[in-house]
Amino acid sequence: MSIAGNVGLGDLPRICPLISRRVQESADTMETRVVQVGAVRFGDARPVVIAGPCAVESREQTLEVARAVKAAGAEMLRGGAYKPRTSPHDFQGLGVEGLRILREASRETGLPVVTEVMDPRLVETVAEYADMLQIGSRNMQNYPLLVEAGKSGKPVLLKRGMAASLCEWLGAAEYVAKEGNLEIVLCERGIKAFPAGEYSRNVLDLNVIPAVKEETFLPVIVDPSHATGVASMVEGASCAAVEYGSHGLIIEVACDEEGSPRPKCDAVQAINPATLRRIVRFIDFHTDLRAPRRAHAV
Ligand code: PEP
Ligand code: MN
After folding, report:
1. Nearest ligand to residue 80 Cα
2. Pocket of ligand 1 contains residue 136 by CB under 6 Å
3. Ligand 1 geometric centre to CA of 225 (Å)
4. What confidence tens digit (pLDDT) does each residue in 186-211 have?
5. Ligand 1 pocket residue status of 137, Cβ below 6 Å
6. Which tens digits make up the pLDDT trace of 54-110?
7. Residue 137 CA: which ligand is closest?
8. Pick from 122, 102, 101: which is nearest to 113 by CA?
9. Cα-Cα-Cα-Cα dihedral of 276, 34, 131, 20, to 10°?
10. What is this structure's pTM?
11. DSSP assignment letter at 261
């Protein structure tokens, strides 16, 4: 007798046929689907680096960080205009003003923008400003939100729920796919498991990367910032994720120049631009190592 709602990987062809490798034709040979956001390609040989502040807190802060992450080699900008905060008394984000600032930072740097949308009623508004919609960990199973994100046709960055199984996560992706939107990138961001909270914010589940690749053709990236919650762990977690086959990283960055504002949101996990530069260098090195040997240049 099985328990209601208890599902395993064997149920995936039924739960998420549209994104299941096992169901789709020529599944065994199917490459990862490349999800394109502007000129950025998730699922290609080179892992993509998305970087930026946790939250858009002001125009000055966002432009400064955007310029710094561009100079460090990031290919996409992140930043929340709508923030899911534990306390309703904490800074909730700048809303539409934050979206405008992100658009300005994007135009100046040429970096496409990903930003979180928490409310199905705001999908259209956020989609007007952003190049990619982020569904946060807390909203992974907000089905009306997933449906609206699917309908928008915009690329979606779907974070893993902090206590979600792989089946639940891929089931959530299927809601987006069912609306005809296969522009989905999955993002592992750490799970609540022992010993989360003792020396790190969450437990980074690197094993899920090869497991995702086995079950679906959608690209998968890693958020080492929320997975660790500790700035000094972010570089190691990033490199490990890339070694483990992640198609990219999404990293929180704060500038540490004299006079740069300290972030109100997630300051202890933000790395500085110099550390981001080292992570990008690691990716350069890693990608070169894995590239097929080029014919001798003439
Ligand atoms: C974020 O990336 O800004 C965020 C809130 O992350 P998560 O949803 O993974 O907690
Ligand atoms: Mn954050």
Report:
1. 1
2. yes
3. 9
4. 999 999 999 889 999 999 999 999 99
5. yes
6. 999 999 999 999 999 999 999 999 999 999 999 999 999 999 999 999 999 999 999
7. 1
8. 102
9. -110
10. 0.96
11. P
